[in-house]
Design goal:
The protein has two domains: about 220 residues, Winged helix-like DNA-binding domain superfamily/Winged helix DNA-binding domain (Arc Repressor Mutant, subunit A), CATH 1.10.10.10; about 60 residues, Alpha-Beta Plaits, CATH 3.30.70. The protein has twelve helices and nine strands. α2 packs across α11, α3 crosses α5 and α10 packs antiparallel against α11. It is globular and about 60 Å long. β8 and β9 form a beta hairpin. By secondary structure, it is an alpha+beta fold. Strands 5-6-4-7 form a four-stranded antiparallel sheet. It has a three-stranded antiparallel sheet with strand order 1-3-2. A two-stranded antiparallel ribbon has the order 8-9.
Length: about 325
């Protein structure tokens, strides 16, 4: 990190930045996806390229890397671009909005509530190898675990949403969808289903690392004056970037199926509290520094008020 950035940010924020910038390779596209999903989607989902380059500079993303990354995101149908003269603007594509809407619902919503013993099952009795692979990947993204060859399960999935996904992917004829109850399962059998379907050990380890890092950040920031907008934007972006990379791998099992010391709840609370501290100064920073080709970004919509609700119970 340059001396100017070390001087510009408080020590704990500079330490976060330095850790991110040491990553190799430095994945600019992934961080830009975080910024679009967290900061820009509630503000219309568009930003001028020059503003995006300015926002990404503290993270070590050069102008060339930003340009290369957004071009790749356009190719992958996350973003769309437009030009006026020599100036460019990037905005979420229609497909990108759909992807972000689904991810946003997972990232910012509270943990699952009480479980009533029901399971949603998807069974693949046949189908081609390509179809089976597509179902496995897409159901894995939705938190399903494979509990036997060709059998996928989730305790809280919405069956109607799964049916719609299978239809949209043209896989409804290759898969069978069931809703059932696990009331007849003994506790040991239920625990065996969870162990078979989901490897929670690595996820728990990553959550604990996240908690240790960001609780330390939160404690350090609480002991000093409120952060300036640019430093708050750095903290908010890295907080959500790291949290989403872990949380989107979480099957979001209900508490009744999780270990008693499951760290996902503490990680959620850590993220919720620190996010609440930095969201106001970052919104003010975006008001002052981020623009579209038509002018300043619009104010954030009402969805911001519903992010990270308190844990109930």
């Amino acid at each position: 990190m340059s001396e100017s950035h070390r001087d510009r940010f408080p020590h704990r924020v500079a330490t976060l930045l330095a850790a991110f910038r040491r990553q190799r390779p430095l994945r600019g596209g992934s961080l830009i996806v975080t910024v679009f999903g967290d900061a820009l989607a509630p503000r219309g989902g568009a930003i001028a390229l020059g503003s995006l380059i300015e926002l990404m500079a503290p993270f070590g993303l050069t102008e060339r890397l930003v340009r290369t990354s957004v071009a790749r995101l356009v190719h992958e149908d996350w973003l769309a671009s437009r030009r006026i003269g020599r100036r460019s603007e990037y905005r979420l594509s229609a497909r990108g909005r759909e992807r972000f809407a689904e991810a946003t619902a997972r990232i910012y919503s509270g943990p699952p509530g009480a479980w009533h013993g029901r399971w949603t099952l998807v069974v693949m009795p046949g189908g081609t190898a390509a179809e089976r692979d597509a179902v496995r990947r897409q159901l894995g993204w939705r938190g399903f675990g494979q509990i036997a060859p060709g059998v996928f399960a989730h305790p809280t999935a919405n069956a109607a949403a799964v049916r719609a996904f299978l239809a949209s992917a043209r896989l409804e004829r290759a898969a069978l969808l069931f809703e059932t109850t696990g009331a007849a399962l003994a506790d040991a059998d239920r625990d065996r289903v969870v162990r078979q379907g989901w490897d929670l050990r690595e996820l728990a380890m990553r959550y604990r690392h996240f908690i240790g890092r960001y609780r330390t950040v939160g404690a350090a920031l609480a002991a000093r004056a409120p952060l300036a907008g640019d430093a708050a934007f750095v903290v908010r972006t890295l907080l959500i970037h790291e949290y989403r990379r872990i949380h989107l791998r979480d099957p979001l099992l209900p508490r009744g199926l999780l270990p008693a010391d499951w760290p996902g709840l503490a990680a959620y609370e850590t993220c919720r509290q620190l996010y609440a501290e930095v969201v106001a100064p970052t919104e003010a920073y975006l008001d002052a520094h981020a623009t579209r080709l038509a002018g300043p970004l619009p104010r954030a919509d009402r969805s911001m008020a519903h992010r990270f609700p308190p844990i109930e119970g």
